[in-house]
Design brief:
The chain is an alpha+beta fold and 437 residues long. It folds into 2 domains: 225 residues, no CATH class; 193 residues, Alpha-Beta Complex (endopeptidase fold (from Nostoc punctiforme)). Helix content is 53%, strand content 11%. It contains 19 helices and 11 strands. Strand 10 and strand 11 form a beta hairpin.
Length: 437
């Protein structure tokens, strides 16, 4: 189980890293900020570029803190590989936040812009100010300091365990973070420098537990900041119950497009529209065999879905552990369906694309699985839309296009109105009410 946990967390880290702000990928935003400061305000195109970079950072931040938080049940395993992944993620987040804060300090107009509320993405006012205060608080710095000291004390052992698990790339990433440690040490107040290494040095096991606890507390506070409050009662489950899951599983067919929504997911904060996520139902093992497709996986594997840990085969109960779902059935022939699903299966194993650039196929976002499977099949033609210099297709854009071009049939919908699965015209009518007019 530990190896699976490490593999999943490592895939998340690999997927997120390119989306984090760095000095070399913020050159355009810095030039925009310089021009905006000179004139006193941002132009619309400059605004969109800055907003896009910030939203990518927020999405990456939420994903990595959540990944660290999800490692908490395995705290007692004392696996130095898990520490290495969690600490590398925390270090990257501290560093990348620093680049945005530097930009805001040098150009106050950028701080004003990033602290604006953005209703399109449900962002409240002063988000960057809150992130700065969170990272610069004595508590946060003290917790990060303990993790860094543990890393420095057990650096050799950590690197050896990572190398032994074919995680040499992670070792290189950790080494690239090391030059910044001294800079962060100097930023701490004198009273915080009294933390002793002796307690960590007595036992790698006890030190590991203490350090991981503080990393989890640090990530927990970050997650609390980004949760959408008051949407659902604390402790309430997903609206898709076991009964609904069993019912819909009998109605699905290979090729069905699953569009889903979590009412309180952090990812909803950074994606426009009511429907933020898509997956592809590939059918049960026997259904895939009838279509002449590889019978990949066991009988429980029925979905191909791109999530933070990449494009993976998943069970339907995982994909539909949500609050609302929409099922779209492509209008294609059996031969066209076989071709589309053959394409889909070829993408399994790729990392998630947190930059959402559909021009590249080495990493895929959730809707890109659908796009690359069906575009060019039969009458399927989907238009990528340019957003902040990149071509992409959100779930809502996908829905609008396939409905307008009559490429799909709306077959089922659940979770928007009432507790029954709607179908046919009822589902279509309810769907239209969730889309912008």
């Amino acid at each position: 189980m530990s190896n699976e946990i490490v593999e999943s967390a490592w895939r998340v880290l690999q997927g997120v890293r390119p989306a984090l702000p760095r000095r070399d990928n913020l050159k355009t935003e810095v030039a925009d900020a310089r021009a905006a400061q000179a004139r006193g305000y941002y132009l619309p195109d400059e605004d969109e570029r800055l907003r896009d970079a910030y939203l990518r950072y927020l999405a990456a931040r939420a994903t990595l803190w959540q990944m660290i938080h999800e490692l908490e049940p395995h705290l007692k395993s004392k696996d130095l590989r898990i520490f290495g992944i969690a600490f590398c993620a925390a270090s990257m987040l501290v560093r990348s936040a620093g680049y945005l804060i530097e930009l805001a300090r040098e150009y106050p107009v950028a701080l004003t812009k990033l602290d604006e509320a953005e209703p399109r993405y449900q962002l409240p006012r002063k988000t960057l100010t809150r992130i700065y205060r969170s990272l610069s608080s004595p508590h946060a710095q003290w917790r990060y300091r303990q993790a860094r000291d543990f890393y420095e004390l057990y650096r050799t052992q950590i690197h050896e365990e990572l190398e032994a698990s074919d995680l040499g790339q992670l070792v290189l990433w950790l080494e690239r973070e090391e030059p910044l440690f001294d800079e962060r040490k100097r930023s701490l107040g004198r009273s915080l420098l009294e933390y002793g290494l002796y307690s960590l040095g007595r036992s790698a096991g006890s030190g590991y537990t203490k350090v991981m606890f503080h990393l989890f507390r640090l990530s927990g506070s970050a997650i609390a900041e980004l949760k959408q409050p008051f949407i659902k009662a604390r402790g309430s489950g997903k609206r898709v119950t076991a009964r609904i899951l069993e019912d819909i599983s009998k109605r699905l067919k290979p090729g069905d497009i699953l569009i889903t929504r979590h009412d309180d997911a952090m990812s909803n904060l950074f994606l426009p529209g009511f429907w933020p996520h898509a997956a592809l139902y590939i059918g049960r093992r026997d259904e895939r065999e009838k279509l002449g497709l590889p019978a990949t996986g066991d009988d429980a594997i029925t979905v191909l879905e791109a999530k933070k840990d990449g494009v993976r085969f998943r069970e339907l109960r995982e994909t539909l552990s949500v609050d609302a779902f929409l099922i779209l059935r492509p209008k294609v022939s059996p031969e066209e369906l076989r071709e589309a699903l053959t394409r889909a299966l070829s993408h399994e194993g790729k990392l998630f694309d947190f930059i959402f650039d559909f021009r590249k196929a080495e990493r895929l976002a959730c809707t890109e699985v659908v796009y690359r499977s069906f575009h060019g099949i039969g009458s399927w033609r989907l238009e990528l839309l340019k957003k902040s210099g990149r071509l992409a297709l959100s779930a809502e854009d996908l829905i609008n296009q396939v409905l307008e071009k009559e490429l799909v049939e709306v077959v089922y919908l659940y979770g928007v109105r009432g507790t029954s699965i709607e179908s046919g015209e009822d589902a279509s009518r309810t769907l239209r009410n969730t889309l912008p007019r």
